[in-house]
Amino acid sequence: GEDVEQSLFLSVREGDSSVINCTYTDSSSTYLYWYKQEPGAGLQLLTYIFSNMDMKQDQRLTVLLNKKDKHLSLRIADTQTGDSAIYFCAERGNTGGFKTIFGAGTRLFVKA
Amino acid sequence: DTEVTQTPKHLVMGMTNKKSLKCEQHMGHRAMYWYKQKAKKPPELMFVYSYEKLSINESVPSRFSPECPNSSLLNLHLHALQPEDSALYLCASSPDRADYGYTFGSGTRLTVV
């Protein structure tokens, strides 16, 4: 079945770049997403990328998609302490209807 | 209005109680979702409503009963829950297709005692 995998933890220093990686198995994945969850809160959609794109940039966020390797990454430039949160990679294929598959989430720690 | 509002934010209920979680959005979204999230885990899909009709039920026990009274409201009725049902319950919405992702509410933290 479909699966999305992420590393569980990442620690960076304030001001450095953070790169969070994700791999997925569904070759029909057409839509890929990054969500952020702060403690005690719901998920916030950060950005999305369609499978016909290689890269998407939005202010400090850069998403790279390698469709051949089924690899997605999220780069956060100039990471701030406010970026400390859990980041979920998610994918949805054309066959999934409304169903989005989430990864386990990467907990980002930002050290001052 | 670009928000999904969930009430209550916290709920403690006994195993014999009946309670309801409420979710509201005024973005004109036609799909609404209930997710369950346990600590340190990703959200798990429970139910999907599309145009006020139930389109996905992920084999959720009958002690959870969803209801979509209109296109802006989504309820989750709870009855005879177990302690293992304690979790964060998240509501989300999207336009008729979720191509551009979901808008999530901030969730209801449910504790079953």
Task: Please write the string of helix (H) and strand (E) elements of chain A.
Answer: EEEEEEEEEEE
User: How many DSSP H or I helices of chain B?
Assistant: 0
Q: Assign a percent range to the helix content of chain A.
A: under 10%
Detail the poorly predicted runs of chain A.
none
Radius of gyration of chain A: 14 Å
Which two chains have the most extensive interface, and how many residues on each?
A: A-B, 21 and 28 residues
How far is the N terminus from the C terminus of chain B?
36 Å
Uncertain residue segments of chain B: none
The pLDDT mean of chain A sits at 92
Approximate shape of chain A: globular
Radius of gyration based on Cα positions of chain B: 13 Å
Question: Helix share of residues of chain B?
Answer: under 10%
Termini separation of chain A (Å)?
Answer: 41 Å
What's the tally of helices of chain A? 0
- Identify the quaternary structure here: heterodimer
| Percent of residues in beta strands of chain A | over 45%
Largest sheet of chain A, in brief, is: 6 strands, mixed
Shape of chain B: globular
Order of helices and strands of chain B: EEEEEEEEEEE
Task: Describe the structure in brief.
The complex is a heterodimer of chains A (112) and B (113). With 112 residues, chain A is an all-beta fold.
Output the keywords.
heterodimer, A: 112 residues, mainly beta, 6-stranded mixed sheet, 5-stranded antiparallel sheet, 0% helix, globular, B: 113 residues, 7-stranded mixed sheet, 4-stranded antiparallel sheet, 57% strand
Chart the SSEs and their pairings:
The complex is a heterodimer of chains A (112) and B (113).
Chain A: E1 4-6, E2 9-13, E3 18-24, E4 29-37, E5 43-50, E6 55-58, E7 61-66, E8 71-76, E9 85-93, E10 101-102, E11 106-111
Parallel strand pairs in A: 2-11
Antiparallel strand pairs in A: 1-3, 3-8, 4-5, 4-9, 6-7, 7-8, 9-10, 9-11
Chain B: E1 4-7, E2 10-13, E3 18-25, E4 31-37, E5 44-50, E6 53-57, E7 64-70, E8 73-79, E9 87-94, E10 103-104, E11 108-112
Parallel strand pairs in B: 2-11
Antiparallel strand pairs in B: 1-3, 3-8, 4-5, 4-9, 5-6, 7-8, 9-10, 9-11
